[in-house]
Amino acid sequence: MLSVEEFPGRSTSPLRKMATLVSAIGQDEFATSALDALDEAVGVDHLSLLRINAKGDVDFRAATSVGGSHLSDAVSREYFHRFTHLDPVRSVSRRRMVPGGYLLVRVTGKDVLNASYRQACYTNPDIGERLTIFSRVNGLDYQINLYRVSSRGRFGEDAPQFLSGVAEILLPAIMRHADLISGPGEGRVRRLSLEALEHRVRRLNDKLSDREIDVCSRMLYGQSIEGTALDLEISQTSVVTYRRRAYAKLGITCHNELFALAM
């Protein structure tokens, strides 16, 4: 006798959202899809994704928050410009990293010895704990940073087990996304300044407004919607509106097509 089990067409498990994440690779919604999947599974307030080259420079970053808060991008910007080399995860990785494998590291403010770093990235934004998935592949370091605010307490004891189970989905997805958005490690996009990207976007269509150029160039630069809004001092809704208008004028529908046109 055959044994048959019937399953609904749309699972409600977090793993279904991992499938959505894979389909968002190369799209503007990638970081949001990652946060959505991880928040449902382990409870995440803020998320940042980073790629760090052999020189220790962050050459790709994306950040987003539950509810669209600017906080995660502000924190990742501070980290990006000032504190990458002081991250305790970096020192742990130098001692314990196996190339091709990954580490899962818990970090609280108490683990951060530098007072300025601790104040900017933990105390001021009220970050209680961070979980980081770290991997080194072909000389490039990848970090998935999951943050929780103090009022929500620490991540549950089951969080590391879940993250270890999905790391082999998350990490390749982020690697591919970073390649598409910022080039493969030593890619040409990263070497272009924001001013150079603005010039390239401007040449695509003389009907683009200055704000539409500002938004598109920052998307090519690797900034998230939240980061672009913060940088231009406009709302996230305005960023989406300017992006939609620019895409319509250019006859495209997504980031990949913008990348293909401009690069």
Automatic annotation (TrEMBL):
**A GO molecular-function annotation:** DNA binding
SMART domains reported for this sequence: HTH_LUXR
Give every HTH luxR-type domain span: 205-262
Q: Which superkingdom is the protein from?
A: Bacteria
Q: Which InterPro entries match?
A: Sig_transdc_resp-reg_C-effctor, Tscrpt_reg_LuxR_C, WH-like_DNA-bd_sf
- Regions that span the bilayer: none
Among the GO biological process terms of this entry, one is: regulation of DNA-templated transcription
- The name on file for this protein is Putative Regulatory protein LuxR
